[in-house]
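Final report, Chapter 2: Outcomes

The project's central promise was a pipeline that accepts a single protein chain and returns its three-dimensional structure in a standardized token representation, suitable for archiving and comparison. That pipeline is now operational. To close this chapter, we reproduce one record exactly as it appears in the project archive, with the input sequence first and the structure output second.
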Amino acid sequence: MRTILITGPGGSGRTTVAAATALTAVREGTRTLVLSADRTDTLGTLLGVPTGAAPVQVAPRLTAWRPDATAGFRDDLAGFQDRAAKVLDLLGASRLDPEEVTPLPGAEELTLLRALRDAALSERHDLLVVDLPPTQQALALLSLPEELRRYLRRLLPAERQAAAGLRPVLGRLAGIPMPSEWLYETAARWDTELGAVEAVLADRHCVLRLVAEPGPAGADAVRSAGLALALRGLRPDTLVANRVVPQEWPAALVAQQRKTLEEWQESYDVRAVRHLGHDPRGADDLTALSVSEVNGTSSTVEWPVIDQLAEDGVLVWHIPLPGAIREELDLVRRGDELVVSAGQFRRIVPLPSALRRCTVAGAALREGELRIRFEPDPELWPRTP
């Protein structure tokens, strides 16, 4: 299945573009599911059919879905209490009634990721269009699987599971399942689920599209989003310039938009969507927007390690960071991980295996690319005869 992730600053028209993209695909005969993270039913208003916790058939070959975080959280809580029943009874803890529970922070993000995974693995559709939250929230959402898996592995490292054979014995002696047993089982299940989400996001058929309205505010938002996405190893396959006004509109506004569009075209594949003069509503308006180009290329960007051992005695890690400012960059080596900070954005990445046997020898920012030099550590690098 192909997947299109759509995000942009708040108010840029992300949901409108997502709905219009889905309708374009349907007109071309593609079985399409549009998935929205919006708490309010903006998607339903646009499509003319209310959407909610259960997928709804909007038209032939078009399905819409807004997952319910509350229901998902309650189901997870009930499942957790069932698995930990004996331990909770031993501790004298009373069970929570799912109806008295409200979702904890992060439940909406996890619910959307789970829905994204389930939809992407389904064979009932050919295309999945995802209306993500505004850019900052979307970036946090897209980084969540990687971050949570990292936390799980730090808190419950694999080597501690070497004692797995002892836990059932100890459990039988104590008369209850050992807490570590279901803890590791839960962690393993989460790791598998999160890994499945990561696989969807990294798939070559998954693309990310950025929506923004041309103008000073939109230009600032795109610059910030481009750098943040690059730090995650992502790049928009298309920048959708939404609400582009006709030439007969006030000259100052037309000139302002044109200037921004010219700047964007230097770095992105820009698709202009015209302003209708009113808020779109219904299939006719969405069709009039002429949102096209459903097919795209993968949004993942490689971070190659270039071997310069023969020439300069170093390995160079190339990390594309368009828009990065030298004074706002920071690097910290911590064991086998590298902490990369670019302005307000930060990412902790594992070092490629070859670089783990090296020491950092310096770094430079050139033409929007961070180049980190690594020298082989004599105590770790294999000696040549």
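Archive annotation: Residues 133 and 139 are 9 Å apart (CA to CA).
This record, like all others produced under the grant, will remain available to the consortium after the project formally closes.
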